[in-house]
Design goal:
Elements: H1 4-26, H2 43-56, H3 65-75, E1 81-85, H4 93-96, E2 104-108, H5 116-129, E3 133-139, H6 143-150, H7 159-165, H8 182-199, H9 202-209, E4 214-220, E5 227-229
Parallel strand pairs: 1-2, 1-3, 3-4
Antiparallel strand pairs: 4-5
């Protein structure tokens, strides 16, 4: 049995070690080494690698979360990749691609369709913030696309989804029954919306023509967590 004096000494040593550990981590200043930049040539690979980590359950611990918050709050944001995706609660881009604060510039709207607000947002990202890649990402089991395929009459303002998505399905492949599957419609919508982003913006189309912008299309599988990039 340890005496009271020995117990107090052990407790004192343990407390000293704990305080030293707190001091060493609490006072470090790593904001000068934190980077939110993803190089253009590495964008696709970084997204694929991040998604692979997400699917495997090996996402980064993000122990730099506070440092990134301080850096972006102090120095401003410099995101590299824009993402247009659905508002669906199952499709958070930062988690899907295992990215932290400051790397992604995200627009989310049900049905992941482009409009003037979305286009203007990405124009700002490209022209002012340094965004060099935009990913238009749809997902499986999309309610907005499914409603469009089914020709549903939606109440309230929800009909805006159908109006925005319907043109994307005009040239979508059709099955033997003459109908487009929801899966094919989701792909067609992604491709069409990506094209419209460039068609409706001189800033974005010029950036792409000048080799300063890459636009990627992708589909996220809500059951597996995997992202499939389209050709």
């Amino acid at each position: 049995m340890m005496t009271n004096l020995q117990l107090r000494r052990v407790a004192t040593i343990a407390l000293s070690i704990a305080l030293a550990a707190c001091a060493s981590t609490g006072t470090r200043n790593t904001t000068s080494t934190v980077s939110t930049t993803i190089e253009p040539a590495q964008a696709l690979q970084e997204l694929k690698a991040g998604n692979a980590r997400y699917v495997a359950g090996n996402v980064r611990m993000h122990d730099w979360r506070h440092e990134r918050t301080v850096k972006t709050g102090t120095d401003g944001q410099t995101p590299s990749i824009g993402v247009l995706t659905c508002a669906d609660s199952r499709t958070p881009p930062e988690m899907i691609f295992d990215q932290g604060i400051g790397s992604l510039f995200v627009v989310r709207i049900a049905g992941n369709f482009q409009n003037d607000v979305g286009v203007g947002t990405f124009e700002y990202g490209v022209a002012a913030l340094g965004v060099h890649t935009i990913v238009v990402m749809g997902h499986t089991k999309c309610g907005a696309v499914g409603a469009t395929v089914a020709g549903k009459d939606l109440p309230g303002k929800m009909g805006a989804f159908v109006t925005a998505i319907k043109p994307a399905l005009a040239d979508a492949p059709k099955g033997a029954d003459g109908k487009t599957s929801t899966a094919d419609a989701e792909i067609a919508n992604v491709r069409w919306q990506a094209g419209q982003l460039l068609k409706n913006s001189e800033i974005l189309s010029k950036a792409k023509a000048d080799g300063k912008l890459t636009v990627l299309c992708a589909i996220y599988d809500v059951e597996t967590g995997a992202v499939r990039f389209l050709d």
